[in-house]
Hints:
Number of strands: 0
Largest sheet: none
Number of helices: 6
Helix content: over 70%
CATH superfamily: Ferritin, core subunit, four-helix bundle
Shape: elongated
Amino acid sequence: MNWKHVLPIALFAPALAFAQGKPSDPQIAGIVVVANQIDVDAGKLAKSRSQNKEVKDFAQQMITDHTAVNKQAGALAKKLGVTPEDSDTSKSLKQGAADNIASLKQQKGAQFDKAYVDHEVTYHQQVLDAIDKLLIPSAQNAELKGLITKVRPAIAAHLEHAKHLQASLGKK
């Protein structure tokens, strides 16, 4: 693994799960929206810059799936009368995402693909950790907790897909 490309996420990863003790439901909603938007944005960049069909297909899946989750989260927040709020965690996520996008924009070709996929592996693992250790245990509203629980298997599937893609890129 090329640590140069993983470093931005490594810097904010602890904040993803532990930037604050126990976030409120509006803060959890904010974290969910930000975490999904980060993957949509990275996917759009990868789809536009990669020349690898598998990477482009994965990026499109990230755009589609994470956009759908954000629509569900937005609809639930509206139904519950909850406005997603910024928190230390969501702010840290945004900064880490900006650093990652800046790093990716400096890459080209196979180097870009590897950096993007390496980041996706790390990011999805950290999102799973945050879901298990922070978001589900902290959510007070049953529907919010239910949404997070419902999307967890998709995040796990994304992680496995990214790991498979990472392994195939390593063979080229």
